[in-house]
Design goal:
The structure is a homodimer.
Chain A (H helix, E strand, L loop, with lengths): L3 H8 L15 H13 L4 E8 L6 H4 L2 H13 L4 H9 L11 H8 L7 E5 L2 E9 H4 L3 H17 L4 H22 L7 E3 L8 H15 L3 E4 L2 H7 L10 H9 L3 H18 L6 E2 L6 H6 L10 E4 L4 H14 L8 E4 L5 H11 L4 E6 L1 H4 L16 E8 L2 E2 L14 H10 L13
Parallel strand pairs in A: 4-5, 4-9, 6-7, 7-8, 8-9
Antiparallel strand pairs in A: 1-3, 1-10, 2-3, 10-11
Helix pairs in contact in A: 4-8, 9-10, 9-16, 12-13
Chain lengths: ~425, ~425
């Protein structure tokens, strides 16, 4: 039986929207948005799309008209009643009313601000300017739109069974990863793959497959819409944009040196328990830990998002021990370019020494490598970052020099201020 | 949108039927049925199910009540108007009115005769007795029902995503075969997989995938219902049951020796062109060719269905040459236990020497080997054969002693009468 009404509804579509909701975004964006509104609501920032894989000429692959349609569609979105009810009524990280009524009133009235789009040398220059709490919410949907439009451009040329086999292969590939992870006792793993997903539908499939295949080893998803629809935990804490913007706003080197700790002091006032996770690598993990205030050692854990994860985790364990903390009470969240072999190694290495958890991103929701003859669906390294605050450039160093960003002289200043020593270059896959 | 009507219709199902139509059968069954009605309409025969893979205990796996429901359902089927129109109006092998009006009148009124079912030592004894033209039509649906019920017993224990991944893996596996075959210039391949298919829906998928993936290298399907629904050629000629029953009816050794040629003489009166395909292995290919009448060398081709296919094909080529025929005008159809590596080898070996064609069966429509942990969906060797005619046992020797069937003393007599020499044993996979 053909469902005629559905078919008719579908063939009237002007647009098959990629982002269908304001909460089709990462949970930590909403947490950070609330913090920013509390502490720096009037800061003017610019976010910009940066394609670190320059061989992928996005402006040649993705039609500008389609891109504008998708971005314009996102600007029409507002929070639905059901979404608002979920945010107001749900328990996040064991806490009721994570989002204050004041924040929710504001968020219910929000529409995303305008964007600026230009083509240059085969790439799109896509920037967002305005108040930090609004502009920051563009990051995830902008990335998801670009990733999925690029995929659609490739998929549009494929035949019916070829398409079905493509997804059959992708499902098979993901399921083999699930089967690889299943024997790992005590594994805790979450989906962090919204920003670079192949598509919304595919992320939704991956999340459900993980839940069936891994049971309670799968602890949730960073995607709020999927968490809501599939009755899962929404997962996430905070990101580099907080120290990057705080640092850019610093007036002196001394203030700059204190900026990353100021971010966490503000966070400390708002959150406790498993939300007290340090992200130490923005300006180098080593210097960050060496100069960290005593009270930070009392936090629950550390997220490792660049560099050599074993080295960073060992450094964290030593740091806790030096401050009289028992690492077995602490948590390390690995979230940088993970795939199953790496997850398994890290899980085994640190078992019994520290609690571990994994935020699995691109290679969960977009591992289409090897599935088309010319690898036209392989994921690539697209980011959308705060590039300036109140007209001053931001800087990120990270624990891998290849991920560093910002003007050269500012990078040099930050390296000096944050006491960054020798760093190892590591290839950036995704 | 949920199509409520479809959902409601589905959850009322008492039975999800496996065989949905009297033409969900092999084309050659219908051709042979017409021949039998013309030449031996009143012969009483018994067909019986034989599970050559005794390790698969069908009666432990498949519920007897479900089996009876499926078989009873088949007895309720009659030819629909659309099916009748297709058989009467379609062109088969380039010929209009392949089925005579007299045959069609009879077929339109047909219901399949009763079956006899008993359990014995973990197996089902399933037999069909009655007039040959009716009983013979049980073979394919009976096999398809047993194969699919066994699969459903395994599938019934699987979870939702596990099921989806199972089919994803099966699709991936089939598509890899399609991609392997695609570069073979001049390949001609057909689906012969109805009898041992995983399921009807899966066979239908495989056929469509072959059509998209192989284009005109895919020449059609033996399944009449799928040929009709998908607008493909229906493919097939004749099978062992004809010489087996003719031979069983022979009164003397001399008559027995002539029986296989009598079958083809009857066929010769009805069919020409690509339907004049010799199936020489029922009582051994070597003796068959040595004693064959001159006029048979004028036929279009030979089907190789047991033994060493290269040896049989080389023997056929030599035989044609010895009779002044140019093998390049002839066709050899390979149809025994094929998979892609074998198809490719045979295609390359005989390219330019003889026209080749491939009837691909079980490993097209049921290659679920390796797709479940305990291989519970691997195909197995189930047949449904004429075991007696007018109370006298039938015999099949074939070119592989492991496929021989019949009473021991009768096999010995047939070996003597048909001048069968040394034979090589070959494992029977499917």
């Amino acid at each position: 039986m053909v469902d005629i009404a559905t078919r008719v509804y579908n063939h009237r579509w002007k647009l098959d929207p990629i982002v269908r909701s304001l909460i089709d975004t990462d949970f930590y964006k909403l947490l950070m948005c609330q913090t920013v509104r509390r502490n720096r609501p009037d800061t003017n920032v610019t976010f910009s799309l940066i394609n670190r894989t320059s061989s992928i000429r996005l402006a040649d692959l993705v039609d500008e008209g389609e891109l504008r349609e998708q971005l314009d569609h996102i600007r029409t979105l507002s929070l639905s009643r059901g979404e608002s009810t979920w945010m107001r009524g749900n328990t996040f990280y064991g806490k009721r009313q994570m989002f204050t009524p004041e924040f929710m009133d504001w968020f219910e009235g929000l529409r995303l601000p305008p964007y600026h789009l230009e083509r240059r040398e085969g790439q799109y220059e896509l920037t967002f300017e305005g108040k930090w709490p609004e502009v920051m919410l563009w990051e995830i949907p902008a990335l998801a739109v670009l990733m999925e439009l690029r995929a659609r451009a490739v998929l549009g040329k494929m035949k019916k069974f070829e398409l079905q086999v493509l997804y059959a292969r992708a499902m098979t590939k993901l399921w083999e990863k699930v089967e690889f992870l299943r024997p790992l006792d005590g594994l805790r793993i979450a989906d962090f793959g919204t920003r670079r997903r192949h598509s919304f539908l595919w992320q939704d499939w991956c999340v459900q497959a993980m839940r069936e295949g891994l049971g309670d080893r799968f602890v949730g998803t960073s995607n709020c819409l999927i968490a809501k629809n599939r009755d899962l935990e929404a997962i996430g804490t905070n990101a580099h944009e907080l120290p990057m913007v705080y640092a850019a706003l610093a007036e002196t080197d001394e203030e700059l040196a204190r900026a990353p700790y100021k971010v966490l002091a503000d966070w400390h006032e708002e959150h406790d328990g498993n939300l007290r996770i340090i992200l130490p690598d923005t300006f180098g993990t080593e210097g960050f830990l060496r100069h960290a205030p005593e009270w930070l050692a009392g936090w629950t854990g550390i997220r490792v998002d660049s560099g050599q994860p074993e080295a960073a985790a060992e450094a964290a364990i030593e740091w806790w021990k030096a401050h009289g903390e028992d690492p077995r009470d602490k948590m390390i969240i690995f979230s940088d370019g993970l795939d199953v072999a790496r997850i398994s190694e890290l899980h085994r290495r640190f078992a019994g020494r520290v609690r571990t958890s994994f935020g699995w991103g691109t290679l969960l929701t977009n591992d289409f490598r090897g599935l088309t003859p010319d690898d036209a669906l392989a994921p690539f390294s697209l980011v959308c970052k705060a590039v300036s605050a109140e007209g001053k450039p931001t800087v990120k160093l990270s624990d891998n020099p290849r991920k560093a960003m910002g003007p050269r002289e500012e990078i040099a200043r930050y390296q000096r201020v944050f006491d960054v020593g020798e760093q190892t270059e590591i290839d950036v896959l995704v």
